[in-house]
């Protein structure tokens, strides 16, 4: 049960948004998924919800590094 409580804190929408704000503040560079801060920013609400939903469902997050265009880059879990 302790594991579940920790995970619930990780995918809490407020915590996800705070984490994103910190990345934006630090002008984070694109990671393995090739998604820049600018790309994420344009899809912020959609992607934060997607991250939350996948974490809540226990779905592994997979990042693609060979995405053909920015609309499919960094799609979590497929």
Describe the structure.
It is a single chain. With 78 residues, the chain is mainly α. The protein has four helices and no strands. The longest helix is centred in the middle third of the chain and has 14 residues. The N and C termini lie far apart (28 Å).
- The shape is globular
Order of helices and strands: HHHH
**Mean residue pLDDT:** 74
Q: State the secondary-structure class.
A: mainly alpha
β-strand percent reads under 5%
Cα-atom Rg, whole angstroms?
13 Å
- Counting copies of identical and different chains, the oligomeric state is single chain
The share of residues in helices is: 40-55%
Query: How far apart, in Å, are the first and last alpha carbons?
Result: 28 Å
- Count of runs of 4 or more consecutive helical residues: 4
Would you identify the regions where 5 or more consecutive residues have pLDDT less than 50? none
Q: How many runs of DSSP E, i.e. beta strands?
A: 0
Tell me about the largest β-sheet. none
Summarize the structure.
With 78 residues, this protein is mainly alpha-helical.
Name the features.
78 residues; mainly alpha; 4 helices
Write the layout of secondary structure elements.
Layout: H1 2-10, H2 13-25, H3 37-42, H4 44-57
């Amino acid at each position: 049960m302790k594991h579940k409580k920790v995970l619930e804190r990780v995918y809490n929408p407020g915590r996800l948004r705070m984490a994103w704000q910190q990345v934006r503040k630090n002008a984070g560079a694109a990671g393995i998924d090739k998604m820049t801060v600018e790309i994420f920013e344009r899809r912020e609400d959609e992607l934060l919800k997607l991250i939350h939903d996948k974490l809540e469902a226990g779905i592994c997050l997979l990042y693609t590094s060979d995405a053909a265009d920015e609309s499919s880059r960094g799609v979590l879990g497929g």
